[in-house]
Amino acid sequence: MPTILILSLAIIFLTACLAPTLVRYLGDRAGWLLAFAPFSAFIMLVAQAGMIEAGEALVYQVDWFSALDTSFSLRLDGLSLLMALLVTGIGGFIVIYAGGYMHGHPQLGRFYLYLLAFMGAMLGLVVSDNLILVFVFWELTSISSYLLIGFNHEQKETRWKALQALLVTGLGAMAMLAGFILIGTVTGSYSLAEITRMGDLLQGCPWFTAIVILILGGAFTKSAQVPFHFWLPNAMAGPTPVSAYLHSATMVKAGIYLMARLNPSFAGSGLWEYTLAIFGSLTLLLAMFLGLFQKDVKSILAYTTLGVLGVLTMLLGIGSEYAIKAMVVFLIGHALYKATLFMVVGAIDHETGTRDVTLLRGLRKLMPISALAGGLAALSMSGLPPFFGFIGKELIYKAGVKLNGAELIFLVVALVGNLIMMGLALKAGVGPFFGKPNHAALPKKPHEAPLAMWLGPIVLSVAGLVIGIIPFWVTEFMVAPALAAIRGAEIAHLDLALWNLVRPNLPLLLSGVTVLGGFFVFLNRARFWAVADRVLATIRPYGAEAMYGRIFNATIWFSKAQTRWLQTGRLHDYVFLIVMTTVGFLTWAIVSFGGLNFSVDWAAYDLLIICLVIIMIIAALVAVTGRSYITVLVALGVVGFGVALIFAYYGAPDLAITQLLVETLTVVLFMFVVLRLPPLKTISGRFTRLRDGIMATAFGGLITILLLKAVNIQFDHAISDQLAAMSYPEAKGKNVVNVILVDFRALDTMGEIVVVTVAALGIAALVKSGLKGKGKRS
């Protein structure tokens, strides 16, 4: 049933709208009711697993901007189903968890509105089959995540970090949109299903490099790859339910999803594969290095999330069957254990009042359920059997040992990253619950979290254990279809049985090295904490975040400077900017339209006309330099009357008479005004006058060039011949000019008459008001 797709979206968005009202009446208990929306969507989507497993896809489509060949098209295939189940399944537990974590918060209804709106946007993103629709939902996730990260907006630091996430991901989205448009231009389609079958066409086009760079600009910023990684740890400023949701299964995975979705089109290209592998490796190593020195449990989890995003990107770049298989398994495993760990850390923070790992230990007896969930998730994250995380790690090593030559560096990177990640997992998920208790140093007396806060962690952590023991439960309807969608080929059979992986071979040996290295990191964690402040203070000024700060401040400085320069409050400057901008655009148009390619037939100009033009130029110069009103008015009058003479010379007596009347009237009216004005004064400096002279010369010269080019361009027969031929037969007029004015251009003429009439009425009103004022004063 295709309508299930739109129904799933509608349920979540509608529930988001109802959330504030439900919270108002039900309080914290509203979370249990609101969770029905994502869980309902989860059930409806999982019911389609059989059809997806059979290789079919669920499609829902309605017309939308057909002029742009864009439709509101939703499509559920293996990859979409996997992501949609993570978004809705984990999302349901997050909604319940938020009710306990934010107990008594006065803006809980608003929080649920933002959270469910983000959930709907994320679900829409992963089921969209149209690139433009993907961009719309992509931006909705950016905006809603900005509201979630900055939920505690009373704090300046929180606002700064939320804005940072929005700017980084938003700028990436702009690049991504440009890439989408290029893809649509090359393929003639915005449908993802069609584009993924046009890999040869895309890779053969001359814009392929630009497309890859632009698309990765959006994907890398969203999935926090180096050098855009800094926003993700800073996004921990949001409430813990936000961190648990955005950084486990949703927002940061959007970039990974986009790269995986487009992989069939770009796979095989060295540019695509090596870029992903190299940047993924750098992200993994940098995240693990920085994670070693963190003391905040949420920060530790944030850097491990960065590391996992690096692993997923690197695996996509390696691109082999084992690598893609490992990527899908790692994606599922990470969503389960990372959501659990974030929620457990939130429970610890909620019940002890701190997230400082140097203070947290020995909590297992007071928080036994949280300790169980955190321990299971940490072991899965460590890649120990029989957890699902072990399968993912083994597949990574199986993919790594298949590499050759210089590519083996990626295996080394994976080994180093995995062993540090294990140490960090133990530090965040096990460390707070074991060791000698230190409850007296905690801000609050610790106790177990309420049901709403441990239900999700315990279910998800146990799920990581169960599907690790019996992986075939998810292999057939989640992993294999997703693998087929990413590789663009059918997967005949997929065997992820645990007992097939636990065999004496090189990957298992590497797993042993990982375990030993992970315990070494965990046992020596205090050594890293001891030098943490010094190390971080040394590298921070040279990091990407410092560079972001410099660019941000430079942008603010430039904005203020250009505002001061452009918005001076003086009409004189505004006119100058407008005219010079017009000159710039016109110059560009002239250059792109053949340059100064025109000819002047000087023989066509009579000596009388040339002398007249010279007189008009001299009069214009006198008008500019004149020091009395009379001189200026006379000079302007000479120019106006010269124009009238030109009209008369070239056989347009009606225009000449009109010009003559206008000039006479203008001069007379000016005379009445200027006689009441103070004497002329020189206000502008020499530089300003020189600048204005250059502007006037440039604009006048440009208009002259445009007229000369227009005279030389004749696209069709002259319209004057046609108007002359039509004058008597159609308008019964022997005077062509009159016919043009009152028949062919009747509306223009009427408009001109209206303008003149309105001006006359305005003048009459001013004169009348002046007479009344004079009468009162007298």
Structure, explained:
- Residues 67-112 form the NADH-Ubiquinone oxidoreductase (complex I) chain 5 N-terminal domain.
- The chain crosses the membrane at residues 6-26, 33-59, 79-99, 111-127, 133-151, 163-187, 207-232, 274-293, 300-320, 326-348, 369-388, 408-430, 451-474, 506-524, 574-596, 602-622, 629-650, 656-675, 696-715, 753-771.
- Keywords: Antiport, Cell membrane, Ion transport, Membrane, Transmembrane, Transmembrane helix, Transport.
- It comes from Coraliomargarita algicola.
- The protein has helices at 3-26, 30-34, 36-46, 49-53, 78-101, 108-127, 131-149, 156-187, 192-195, 199-204, 208-222, 231-234, 240-246, 251-266, 270-291, 297-318, 321-352, 368-382, 388-401, 409-429, 451-469, 472-487, 498-501, 506-523, 525-539, 544-566, 571-592, 607-625, 629-649, 653-674, 686-712, 719-731, 736-744, 746-777; strands spanning 58-63, 71-76.
- By secondary structure, the chain is mainly alpha-helical.
- Helix 5 (78-101) runs antiparallel to helix 6 (108-127).
- The longest helix is centred in the N-terminal third of the chain and has 32 residues, at 156-187.
- It is elongated and about 105 Å long.
- The mean pLDDT is 88.
| Count of beta strands | 2
Poorly predicted spans: none
Radius of gyration: 37 Å
Instruction: Determine the mean pLDDT.
Output: 88
Structural class assignment: mainly alpha
For the termini, the CA-CA separation is 88 Å
Beta-strand percentage range? under 5%
* Spatial sequence of strands, sheet with the most strands: 1-2
Number of helices: 34
Q: Name the shape in a single word.
A: elongated
- In helices, the fraction of residues equals over 70%
- Note the main sheet: 2 strands, antiparallel
